[in-house]
Amino acid sequence: MHHIARTMHLAQPPDRVWTIVGDFAGIHRWSPGTPEPLVRPAERGGVTTVERVFGVGTPDELVEQLVSRDDDARTLSYSMPTPPFAITDHLATVRVDADDEGSLVTWSVRFEGTDEVAAQLETTLGDGVFQPGLDAIGPALGA
Fold this sequence. Notes:
Elements: E1 2-10, H1 14-21, E2 38-44, E3 47-54, E4 62-70, E5 75-79, E6 88-99, E7 102-112, H2 115-140
Antiparallel strand pairs: 1-7, 2-3, 3-4, 4-5, 5-6, 6-7
């Protein structure tokens, strides 16, 4: 199992940060370059949930399915049923915790894959998606 994570400290109360990052359908409001997704109902293990779809109807269509959202713990987890990478068991989580500076936001993913693919995703996801997204939360909040 591989794990990639990025964190950001924000001088904002955790509940305020959660209002933006805890909105599964609203990722485009804070993550740079992320288009507004189509949000639709989905089935996951016999349970009705939702999924967000980027690039609907294109060869680059990407589906992310909500796995869990806990407002008390301020965590949101999602999976990619058919990731565009050679990985399996994808599970990403965005978490907002209180810290001395206000909030600590962590965006992480775990997955099965080769060490080579994990090294590529460290750059592609960690540096190319997670960190820019985390860097943009403060400005999205007007902070």
